[in-house]
Fold:
Amino acid sequence: MSVSDLFKPLTFMHGPVMRNRFMLAPLVNQQSDIGGAASEYDQEWIRQLSQGGYGLIITGATFVEAGGIAYDRQLGINDDAHLPGLARMAAAIREGGGLSAVQLHHAGHRANPFLGGIPSPASSRTLAGVNALTTEEVARIRDSFIAAARRAEIAGFDGVALHGAFGWILSEFMSPLLNDRTDRYGGSPENRARLTIEVMEGIRRASGTDFQIGWRLSVERYGLILEELQTITATIFDRELVDYLDLALWDTTQIVQEGTFKGKTMLSVFTQIPRKRVRLGVAGKIWSARRAAEILDEGADFVLVGRPGILERDFPLRVKANPEHRSPTLPVTAAFLRQGGLSERFIRHLRGWDYFVEPDSL
Structure:
């Protein structure tokens, strides 16, 4: 395919057509108000993105319970008080011509107690002195995801994206290393996937027919087993429980090093699954227009742009204007980010990675 194919529209089972094949990946930026309300910094970030040509913009990880918070100044959607700020964000994206989604997040065992988080492990062996969630507590968290999705719909978002990656609670429950439960949420791969599937089913029942459901999945670390995840994904695709899968890879070119799929690209393990009407996209070091187009050739329906979207809020427009466009090289200076319009709060967050911001740059 050519770069121009990235600008063909994409339909979903539910909701509006996405105008092109670019999604803005969910990006934590730690610039919300204390308590989770969207700040003016959040609004400005979304305003910039809304003018950048994306087909769909996903918020950063947004906590569904106060006890599920992971980051300082994390965006929240656990209270109706959050609705006005969220509604402004949804309206800005809509006015810019893109679709919108809130990424629903609960930190599970990684919830930060210094921020009011309540570490909530699937297993009693994960954290010393912390008991596993009871079956009733798991059901409460499930219902918090569903209630948060309802708030997102009320606020005017086109959908939600479930954070099932990187060891957060939905991912945690999938892992045989982090989940040794003996109730209906543990044991077999089907039981360990039950929380994720019940959240998907509950959101679909509670939402309108045009509301979209996305799902972010990672396959590395945290004791996750690729073969299990491929089978679970095949079930979710076959049942059409989501509108799209966001496959979060560290690198879209990476090769499986062991097991059943050894020698295959990680992406191909998932593109080979029959997906009916479910769409599949991938994130991971997509720095250039050419690489984005290649991913469509490799069987994906869309691409998710993360770090290039921070460096250039209008990355899709730049690709459209120049099929040879490539994102700036990391690291960059804080001055570069500031000149591009990022807030000091966001820049402070990015300083946590030396590969992103040059150390000691002003």
